[in-house]
Every structure is written in C-alpha cells, then in structure tokens.
## 1
Amino acid sequence: MKASFIRTCTFVLAVLMVLTIASGLIFEGQLARVGMSQDAIAVTLLAIAFFKVRLVIIHFMEIGHAVIPLRIALEAWVILTFAMILTLYFSPAFLNIS
Amino acid sequence: MTSADKNQPRSIPGEEGVWVFIIGDMIVFALMFGVFMYYRALNPELFASSQLNLRQDLALANTVFLLCSSWFVVLGMDSLRTVNLQKAKWAYRGAGVCGLAFVALKYVEYSEKFASGIAITTNEFYTYYFILTGIHLLHLIVGLAVLGFILQVARKPKLEDSDLRNAESGSLYWHMVDLLWIVILAIIYLV
C-alpha cells in the first residue's frame, strides 16, 4: 500500500505539472485559444486551478481517506471559493462596467 | 500509522486542532481573494493593464517549485511513517530547497518591480498584488521554519506517535501554502 501511495502521488504531481504548463501555454496564447472568448479562457484557467487545488487536498493532504466532515469542509472551501471568484469575475457584466 | 491505506478506517490527518488553524487560514485567504476580485470588477481595465507588467514566467516557475516541494513533503512524511529516516531527511531537505528557490524568485520579482518604480501604493492592483503575494510569502517563510522543525524530528533516534502527528501537521501546513499559491497564480497572474 505504501508503494502504491507514493506512485499515486507521483502521478498526481505529473498531472499537476502538465496542468501548470498547459495554463501557461493557454495564457501565452499557444494552446487552445483559437475561437475561445476571453471569458471562456478565464473560466478554463480558473477551473484548472481549482482542480489542481483539489488534487493537492485529496492526495497530498490525504483528505481522500479522512473523516467525512473534514472532507466536506475542504470540498466546500474549493467549491465556494471557485464559485465566489467566478461570480466576481463576471460581475462587471451585471454592473454594466466595461 | 501508514500512508493512505484505503483499507484503514478514516481518520483525521495530523493533530485535530491544526485543522482549525488551516481551515481558518484558508477562509481568510478566500476572503482576500474575494476582495481582490471585487476591486478587479470595479476597475477591470486598470487590473488588466497592470497584470501585463507581471512576470508570469517567474510565477509559473514558482508553481513548479511549490508542487515539487509538496511532493517531497509527501515522500518525507511517508518515509517518517515507515521509519526510513535517512530518506525522510533528504525528502524534507528537498522540500526546503524548493521553498528557498521560491523565495529567491520572489526576491527577483519584487526587486524588478521596485526598480521600475512600482510599489504597493502605485495603484489598486499593485496594492492587492503586494498584499496577497506578500502575506503568502510570509506564510511560506514560516513553512520553511516548520520544515526545519520536521527535520529535527527526523533526527530523533526513536519516533513517538506524537512526533509523527506533529510532522503530519507541519506537512499539512506546507500543502496549504502550496494550494493557496495555485489560486494566487490563477487570479493575479493569469486570468
């Protein structure tokens, strides 16, 4: 079990690295930007970020095997913080700010 | 105590009390993220134009350093649990080196800003940029001290359960510093 845990976390690190590089390439306009609006790019980058955060929480912090209330609290932080940032990102449209 | 064995009953990693601190700190940072995004919503053009002066390359490199450091911490903690203390010490040293690399790049990034006349009072974007990244940097520096403490634990001839729990708590703090930076990278540098 110990060896599989380290293997899993090493795989998670590889995924985190790929997502980080992908975020950089998306920001630079070298990946997956053709035809995407600025808002779609922003949502993609934010979604990648919070997916990465969740990977750190579940695997590196071992919350995937933690008691349920603790897992719920941390998952709630991820969801609520992501939702808050998205809402505020789109709020200029609601406030008619250009 | 073994690492993440899915056949073991669910437990609370680290000392229970450390979660009050970690979750509390995460909530405070979430509120700071919200404040940043709120003022960005009020000044979208100012924030967009100021962001162009940031060093995304350094921020991405720092992300790589912190992700690697977290992996080293995972390896170190697992090694402590299996009483492979030599491996644990090297792993936590690796995490510390990555953390110091982050601090070095932050020094470069801040120095460039100051040299070009940009400071915390330059405009609203830079106020929140320096506050958010500065407070995160302080957390990271505290984290380096925590890693140093864990290294002292790894030098003990015999580890008690309390030693492992303390090391786990310190490791969890470091992972928190890592995950907060992932959000900072996205909202300040990339989006």
Note: Residues 85-115 of chain B form the longest helix (31 residues).
## 2
Amino acid sequence: MMAKVQMPESCPIGRSVVQLIVTRRPMHRKFLNASLAEMSEEEHRDAERYLRFLREDGLDDSRIADAYLTIVDDTFQEELYFRETGRYRCSSYAEAAKQVYDNPEYMTCYMIGLGLTSFWWINHVRMKRFFFETLPSLAGDSYLEVGPGHGIYFLAAIESGLFRICRAIDISRTSFDMTKRIVSREHPQKGAEVEILHGDFLAMPEDNLAAVLVMGEVLEHVEEPMQFLRKAFAVTTPEAKVFLATCINSPAIDHIYNPETFSALRALVEEARFKIGSVLQIPRAGKSLAECEQERLAVNVAMILEKQ
Amino acid sequence: MTDNARETIMRRTARVFRDIFDDDELEIGNATSAADIDDWDSLMHVTLVVALEKEFGIRLKASEIGALDNVGAMVDLISSKLKG
C-alpha cells in the first residue's frame, strides 16, 4: 500500500519522488509530510519547477530521491554525533573538502539534496519566505551573492527585476555549474546583467561595490567567519544591505562554525562593524527559542545588516 | 536468536521508549511506529537512537535506522547488532 503523501495532485514529479523517499525511509515520513502540509500551493509549484529542471538535467526520480536521502541520512548521523559530543564533527575546511567538496559525484548529490530541502523542509521554506519578503527592501543597483550553491536564491534575485546587475561567486565548481545551469535554463540571458563567477570570495577585488550582498548558509561552512564578514564589509557600498543566513547548533556533514548562541552570533556581526536590522530566528519544530538554547537544538537565523 | 532473547530486547527497548517519552503507561509492540506516538518526531528520533545505543552498547547507522518501519524492525536490528 502506498503511503499518503502531503502533496497536491498538480505536482506529479514531487509526488513520485516523495513516494520513493517515504518508501525507502519510513521513519522520515512523519517529518516530511508535516513539512509538506505547511507549504502553500505556490511553494509546491516552485518545488515542482525545480524537480522538472532536475529531470531535464538527466536525473530520474529514483536518483533524485537518493540524493535527498543522502542529506537526510548524513544529517541524522551528524545529529547523533552532536548529541553525544556537543560539537560538530568537522573542524576544518580540509575535512569538509575531503568529505564533500573534492568529491564531484557526492557534491552533485549533495547540492541536489540541499536544493530539495530548501523547498521541502519547513525551516528552510520559512527562511526563503523571509528572503522573498525582504528582497524588495534590499533593492539596489548591484546584487552580489556569495555561495549561491543550488542557485535558487540567485535565480529569485534575477527574476525579481530589482537589480541592474546580479553577480554570484562560488568556490565550488559543482555549485558554480549548477547555478549557471539553473539560471540559463530558467532565465533568458540578457547579456551583462548576470555574472556567475567560480572563485574565492575572499580574493574578490574590492572595486565594483555591491549595494546588496546575500550570504546564505556560508558562515557555518568556514573556519574563520570573521574573514567573510569583513570581506562582505569591504566589497559593499557604505549604504549597502546584507542578507545573512546561518544556523546555530545545527550539525551537518560539512558544518564547521557553530556560534552556539544568538548572542555570540550578534557579537560576531557587530565586531565586523555591521548593525543588525530585521532578524528571523526559526527554532526547531515544536520547540521555543528558549528551549532550543537550553537544550542546544537547532535554530536557523536570518538577519538584515547595515554598516555601522 | 531465541524468542526469550528477543523478548528481553523488546522489554529493554520498551523501557527506553517509556523513559524517552516520559510515559510509564506507554505500550510498545512489534507493529508500533512513529504514526502511533504523537511525540515521536525527528527530534525524538535522535534522542531515542542515542538512548538505544547506550542501552545496548551498539552503534546504529542513519541508513539502518531510516529504513525501519516499526519497533519490531528496530528490535530485529538491535538483535543483529548484538549478535555481531
């Protein structure tokens, strides 16, 4: 008997992939269905669009389901480790690279899986909602995204029409390729308005300043988050706005930096000479922020920064 | 594994469940799944797995846990781990 899937009939690819997922991982069914039930029809359609892109990229539903389950299994394993030791397993970029970034096959699987979690995990969905809600207030001449990864936010920025120039830079070849593909597939190129770079953000020249900088889910992957914040300061205009998203007590296979508390994260940001405007904190489902802090449970954080 | 040995594992597993879910009246059987216990979500699942690992002195992999359908399958997995 097929398990019930909380997905509209208008999303046949999503229904097929989720059915495969819950068949292969029955224990994941409750979490995934609860998350899917909270999504809007439009959010389901966006997910379906992404799945269509993956299929057009040559992936079948079984492969897509397996990529998603790689994230589920690896994250669960890291949660077990974190629960037992109180720390992330990875303590250096070299370790993360060995596990993830230097393995093109795993990296592709990882990016696909992460892309799907951005559509299907309710904490990521809420983060995306916050991004879309605040995007108009971030409008400026030039947009720069650091570490676009799966390219979904970058695509949204381009499609918003709010920016004259949209640039993205990613150190990962796989992520660079994915972002290029999704943008060229989903958005008709308009010449020099979109620029996607493969390279090290920390080595970017500090001319051509950005009015808006987005750094989503980057800090938790680096050894020296202050370097990235200082660089963000250096490559943006004096009136720039920065959208920063990261997480606290949220283990994953390649997470290195854990601020451990919101206060520590705030202190870091302020030391980098930013002041914090809007903040969104998303506690683990079913828990309050206070409970998360006390029990060291995951909190996703997004904040809008301006220069002091 | 003998029926007695399996029964013992089931009793110990049930004790862990009652402790984790803080419910002395909680009844666990082979067919019990996450759908039967309201509070059994992904967070409790991590807590449960850590507690079971400690109770039985074993290590469980995410892919092994994720493929389980119910407590009966969990007990079978624990049994296989104890056999080495």
Note: The first helix of chain B runs from residue 3 to 20.
